[in-house]
């Protein structure tokens, strides 16, 4: 029997081809389109890098077979399975159905003599060969504009049966095949993946090049090589262009991609229009630079709309991305205006607002201008968050950059039973852990109040805002204490060395007595993580930023920080939830 070659496998591969239902997309409400785009971008960006263990990229596809392709490489089939089903949970999947797919695993084979040494001996002194094999089974994402994918088989015809050839004959044919490929080094890069038992063909070939004619020339030349002309059968070819996840709106708007810009070309026109619509309603909102807004028009009873908005506002106010949500009577009904600091937060809010009674129209988009926008001199004032950090830095207080990176926190309060709440949060956290942007999510129990705090920390604002939509459905969520506060909650996270926990709690009680006597202070509670009592969260409510900063500038706080350095397991995080 002919000898099969030895192989080595690396990452599992999923080519996920999607076809857009353009009629349904055009007919969809604007708020649902915006939600689909936000969720699609979040899905793609959250999975782009995987800590060196695989990657994800997205490509437009030319022709009728698909509109775009999402390419995933991961160490396990479980991860591919999860990624495929996670996409199906996005609103984008309502309009982008799977037209085709291909499952395989990266592969290197032992046809060359040097490769046989690698497979037979396991360890070889030739570091260059080892790096080459590893680059085949753990490939980097090539930095190229165009992609071509096709599956292929080796023939089993009576006259030309690849599997009846001896190992030496096959190795000789593969060597000639490789010589042609090496002639395109630097022009075309490839990922070869085996799919026996996984899909309809035996291999998948993915080629990358900046110049598409280099792919054409390579394949044309290889057609004349006997390993192809006599022994190869090919499936359908897919050809496309890579684009960044942020350009998904441009792809679905029929605009040129890549845009070369983080925003789509149509944003400027929408920006002034939405602001003018808000002003025409007689609503005056001081929107920070980069803010996004939602306008919802309703024919429902004004009282019913107002009551429903009041209920939503209680949840919206938990998020530092929320600026304001207002109800305004109009000549033909009621309008609701909601302003947020980020596009993803506004898109999430629009989904809830669209369910208000009697809604007839929803409009979502950027606002620009307003407080924090460029003034006549061209300078841009710092954001409130940056100002707070700057003031704290002047006081030699660390604020908001753990391990050198920004994090974004969501804090919600719940009156639900702690055990019940922890179970639901654990289920959510398991899902959040699939995303590299998730730092941690935990439940904290208060000492002064009967509430629990659900704290979720993320590396990006958009990820935090998306998570907020899920966390808002937890049981018993209530408005935070002191919500009349102009500054809101200031969260400070401390991990205490176990031997010093009681000492830390006693010190907090002393500081708490001091806070009770300070102007502008509403409430402060020391909350402990239900899963780790040494992980504590101080939730503090203030009338204004100035009042809170007065405390941070006090001798009592400086003494506490200095004392705490000896008993804390790591550096504290100060998170401001204005």
From TrEMBL:
<keyword id="KW-0408">Iron</keyword>
<dbReference type="InterPro" id="IPR011008">
    <property type="entry name" value="Dimeric_a/b-barrel"/>
</dbReference>
<dbReference type="Pfam" id="PF06778">
    <property type="entry name" value="Chlor_dismutase"/>
</dbReference>
<dbReference type="GO" id="GO:0046872">
    <property type="term" value="F:metal ion binding"/>
</dbReference>
<keyword id="KW-0349">Heme</keyword>
<feature type="domain" description="ABM">
    <location>
        <begin position="488"/>
        <end position="576"/>
    </location>
</feature>
<protein>
    <submittedName>
        <fullName>Heme-binding protein</fullName>
    </submittedName>
</protein>
<dbReference type="Pfam" id="PF03992">
    <property type="entry name" value="ABM"/>
</dbReference>
<keyword id="KW-0479">Metal-binding</keyword>
<dbReference type="InterPro" id="IPR010644">
    <property type="entry name" value="ChdC/CLD"/>
</dbReference>
<dbReference type="InterPro" id="IPR007138">
    <property type="entry name" value="ABM_dom"/>
</dbReference>
<feature type="region of interest" description="Disordered">
    <location>
        <begin position="355"/>
        <end position="386"/>
    </location>
</feature>
